[in-house]
């Protein structure tokens, strides 16, 4: 199998899974597409070195690019005026879904939650993937859940009252 | 938490497959090639920077100072002579023919090379600048450049007997010769030296209060010298091409010393109009002596054959008065004078003139300007001044461009480029090692 055909086969096989992670990381279809493609370009660039385990490389690239400053700069951020203000639950038209609540977290908080609860990584594994300490992962995870509860009290059952 | 986990999987599973561009592979390959090119460029930038810096640091500073490439075939006297400030003393004394020599404000011997107008501070053996040194009370006062610009004379280190010596440097070859023309008296210090018009003889004068010694030296493979003890206040001395010495007394009048040691009067103060003059420079034919004069409205020359004092008043509209120090003769008719006007004490002007006013006389000012510091001890290679007979297209003096400042902007640019290249290389290395 040539490099090119191996790369194409990898994209075909793992593209949907990468897309799911990218969507949860970004909360936006266009940004997710952008994130996946940027990570795949990096994979193609370094294919000779990573072809034995390309998925780990691509996922790590997505995590880092999602929280890196030059990538965040390109994103269309959610306005911050009511960033931390809870939305009244009585108004059903603005009732937040989990997707919308995730979108209001910081990229770093969202990434930590995706790694912990979607990728099912432990705190130690998450810390290793992001290049930060386990304590930082624990702290960011706690802050992210607290913010989710503040943003959408109706999701308290999902995120746990004691988290 | 299990609910959050299942809800996130539910959200993820609901995502439609994302479109993937077909050219991702080509973009990745292109990015890889760009990275390789970048690394090569970074390495090249570093190599060039290091090599360039090494070349500049190890290069001859003299080359940098003559980077303008401005040279005059055969050499010329600079139109402007100023104190060069602090220079690095040069141990390689073969700097080439010089156009001017003087003692700098920092009491160091300086010559200006004839072809490029660059000042050089020479590391002359036995040159003393620090009179505060308790073991050395001498400060060099005498530095004389020959009219042909090829030799430089100064008082060298005393020999083992404490006897003063005279050093003569061949500026072309860098060879130094040491002579002992002074009497075997410890502590004698040369006050002044001057060369004959043909650069063969050197006249010197030194004080051994209350006596004064004057003498002559013909340096070379068969040196000749003579010293004469005199009494009284002897001002100046000069020697002609035949080795005949003439000195002046402060009380007025000139006297001549023959090779036999006989001292005979040449001109009395009365014959000189009652004015005290100093001896300047002999004309090449030895028939006239350009004189030093204190503040006066003219320059003066003594005609030995005619036993006559010649006067050339400063033309109207030039100097009102001035101190005159002869620098030499261009030929038997034209003399090069250094004139310092009383109203302009900061600079002196070089003037080419004839001894007297007649139908063919000449008086040209602004031939050159000399800062007052160098002017005090200046000696010029007058042979470098072209004749005024119309056969030379060269100006009397040459306006050498100032030494260029070393252009370091490109070094800074290269340094910045190298720093960026190093950072990029480190970033590339980091990403390669960490897989990011």
Automatic annotation (TrEMBL), chain A:
Pfam families: Sigma70_r2, Sigma70_r4. Residues 11-74, 101-150 form the RNA polymerase sigma-70 region domain. Signal peptide: none annotated. Keywords: DNA-binding, Sigma factor, Transcription, Transcription regulation. Belongs to the sigma-70 factor family. ECF subfamily. This is SigE family RNA polymerase sigma factor. It comes from Nocardioides baculatus.
UniProtKB/TrEMBL annotation, chain B:
This is WD40 repeat domain-containing protein. The chain crosses the membrane at residues 37-58, 408-430. Gene3D superfamilies: TolB, C-terminal domain. It comes from Nocardioides baculatus. InterPro entries: 6-blade_b-propeller_TolB-like (IPR011042). It comes from the Bacteria. Keywords: Membrane, Transmembrane, Transmembrane helix.
């Amino acid at each position: 199998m040539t490099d090119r055909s191996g790369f194409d086969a990898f994209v075909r096989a793992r593209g949907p899974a990468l897309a799911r992670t990218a969507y949860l990381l970004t909360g936006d279809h266009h940004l997710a597409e952008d994130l996946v493609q940027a990570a795949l370009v990096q994979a193609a660039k370094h294919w000779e070195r990573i072809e034995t385990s390309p998925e780990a490389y691509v996922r790590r690239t997505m995590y880092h690019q999602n929280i890196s400053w030059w990538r965040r700069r390109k994103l269309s951020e959610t306005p911050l005026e009511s960033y931390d203000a809870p939305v009244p639950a009585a108004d059903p038209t603005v009732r937040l879904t989990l997707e919308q609540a995730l979108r209001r977290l910081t990229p770093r908080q969202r990434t930590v939650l995706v790694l912990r609860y979607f990728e099912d990584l432990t705190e130690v594994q998450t810390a290793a993937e992001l290049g930060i300490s386990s304590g930082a992962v624990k702290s960011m995870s706690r802050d992210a859940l607290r913010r989710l509860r503040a943003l959408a009290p109706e999701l308290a059952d999902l995120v746990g009252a004691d988290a | 938490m299990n609910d959050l986990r299942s809800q996130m999987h539910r959200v993820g599973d609901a995502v439609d497959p994302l479109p993937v561009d077909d050219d991702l592979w080509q973009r990745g390959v292109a990015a890889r090639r760009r990275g390789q090119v970048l690394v090569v460029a970074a390495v090249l930038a570093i190599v060039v920077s290091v090599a360039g810096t090494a070349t500049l640091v190890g290069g001859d500073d003299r080359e940098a100072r003559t980077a303008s490439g401005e040279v005059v075939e055969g050499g010329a006297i600079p139109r402007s002579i100023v104190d060069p400030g602090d220079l690095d003393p040069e141990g390689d004394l073969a700097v080439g023919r010089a156009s001017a020599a003087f003692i700098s404000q920092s009491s160091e011997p300086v010559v200006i090379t004839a072809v490029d107008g660059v000042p050089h501070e020479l590391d002359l053996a036995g040159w003393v600048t620090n009179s505060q040194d308790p073991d050395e009370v001498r400060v060099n006062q005498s530095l004389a450049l020959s009219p042909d610009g090829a030799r430089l004379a100064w008082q060298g280190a005393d020999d083992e007997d404490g006897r003063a010596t005279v050093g003569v440097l061949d500026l072309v070859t860098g060879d130094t010769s040491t002579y002992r023309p002074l009497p075997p008296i410890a502590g004698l210090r040369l006050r002044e030296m001057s060369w004959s018009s043909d650069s063969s003889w050197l006249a010197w004068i030194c004080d051994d209060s209350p006596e004064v010694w004057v003498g002559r030296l013909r340096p070379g493979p068969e040196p000749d010298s003579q010293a004469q003890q005199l009494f009284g206040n002897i001002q100046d001395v000069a020697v002609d091409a035949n080795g005949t010495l003439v000195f002046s007394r402060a009380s007025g009048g000139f006297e001549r010393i023959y090779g036999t040691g006989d001292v005979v009067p040449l001109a009395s103060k009365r014959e000189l109009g009652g004015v005290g003059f100093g001896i300047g420079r002999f004309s090449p034919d030895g028939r006239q002596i350009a004189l030093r004069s204190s503040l006066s409205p003219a320059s003066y020359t003594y005609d030995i054959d005619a036993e006559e004092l010649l006067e050339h008043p400063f033309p109207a509209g030039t100097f009102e008065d001035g101190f005159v120090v002869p620098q030499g003769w261009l030929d038997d008719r034209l003399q090069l004078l250094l004139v310092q006007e009383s109203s302009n004490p900061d600079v002196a002007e070089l003037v080419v003139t004839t001894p007297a006013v007649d139908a063919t006389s000449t008086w040209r000012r602004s031939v050159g300007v000399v800062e007052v510091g160098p002017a005090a001890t200046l000696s010029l290679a007058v042979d470098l001044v072209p004749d005024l007979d119309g056969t030379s297209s060269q100006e009397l003096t040459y306006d050498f461009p100032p030494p260029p400042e070393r252009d370091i902007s490109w070094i800074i640019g290269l340094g910045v480029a190298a720093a960026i290249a190093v950072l990029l290389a480190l970033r590339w290395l980091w990403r390669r090692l960490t897989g990011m």
